[in-house]
C-alpha cells in the first residue's frame, strides 16, 4: 500500500490542480476525492506542501542525462514546462514555488554534468558551473515575473548564448 498510496495521492493532487488553485486544495478535499482516511494521508505526508515536494522528488525530465548541447538542455526544460503548464503555472504562483525551482535547478545541473562528462570541459568546470547558476537565476527571475511560461523562450535562448560564449 505504501508507494502506490503515495502515488495515488500525488496523482489526485495533480488532477485537482486543473480545477483548483493550490491554496484551495486541502487535505480534506484530497481525502474526499480519494476515499482515504486522515491517518492514511498523514502516514505518508505531513501536509499538501509535502505532496508537492514528493512529486518533484520523483519527477525527472526525460532525456536530461543525455543532452548534447546547452540548447538541447534548455529545450528539454522548456518542453517540460510547456507540457506541464497548468501544474507549473499554479505551483509557480504559490507558496510552494521553491519546490519547482529546486527541481528545475537539479534537472539542469544533471544535464550540465552529463554534458560535461562527454565534452571534457574539466578545465572550465568551475567557471561553467558558476555560469550555470547565474543562468538559473535569470530563469527563476523570468519565471517569477512572467504571466506566461511562453515568455521563457527568449530568456532560455539568451542563457544558451551566454553559456556557449563561455566555451
What does this structure look like?
The chain is 73% helix and 0% strand. Helix 5 packs antiparallel against helix 7, helix 7 (97-119) packs antiparallel against helix 8 and helix 8 packs antiparallel against helix 9. It is mostly helical and 167 residues long. The radius of gyration is 18 Å and the shape is elongated. The chain has two domains: 2-55, Arc Repressor Mutant, subunit A (Orthogonal Bundle); 61-166, no CATH class.
Average pLDDT, all residues: 84
The biggest beta sheet is recorded as: none
Low-pLDDT sequence parts: none
Rg is: 18 Å
What gross morphology would you assign?
Answer: elongated
Structural class: mainly alpha
Beta-strand content: under 5%
- Number of separate strands: 0
Total number of domains = 2
Amino acid at each position: 500500500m505504501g508507494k502506490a498510496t503515495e502515488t495515488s495521492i500525488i496523482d489526485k493532487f495533480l488532477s485537482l490542480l486543473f480545477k483548483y488553485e493550490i491554496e484551495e486544495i486541502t487535505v480534506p478535499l484530497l481525502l474526499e476525492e480519494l476515499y482515504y482516511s486522515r491517518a492514511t494521508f498523514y502516514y505518508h505526508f505531513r501536509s499538501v506542501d509535502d505532496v508537492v515536494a514528493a512529486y518533484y522528488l520523483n519527477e525527472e525530465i526525460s532525456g536530461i542525462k543525455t543532452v548534447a548541447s546547452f540548447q538541447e538542455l534548455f529545450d528539454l526544460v522548456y518542453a517540460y514546462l510547456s507540457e506541464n503548464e497548468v501544474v507549473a503555472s499554479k505551483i509557480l504562483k504559490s507558496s510552494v514555488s521553491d519546490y519547482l525551482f529546486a527541481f528545475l535547478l537539479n534537472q539542469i545541473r544533471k544535464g550540465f554534468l552529463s554534458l560535461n562528462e562527454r565534452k571534457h570541459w574539466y578545465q572550465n568546470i568551475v567557471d561553467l558551473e558558476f555560469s550555470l547558476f547565474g543562468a538559473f537565476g535569470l530563469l527563476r527571475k523570468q519565471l517569477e515575473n512572467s504571466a506566461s511560461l511562453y515568455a521563457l523562450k527568449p530568456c532560455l535562448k539568451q542563457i544558451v548564448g551566454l553559456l556557449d560564449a563561455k566555451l
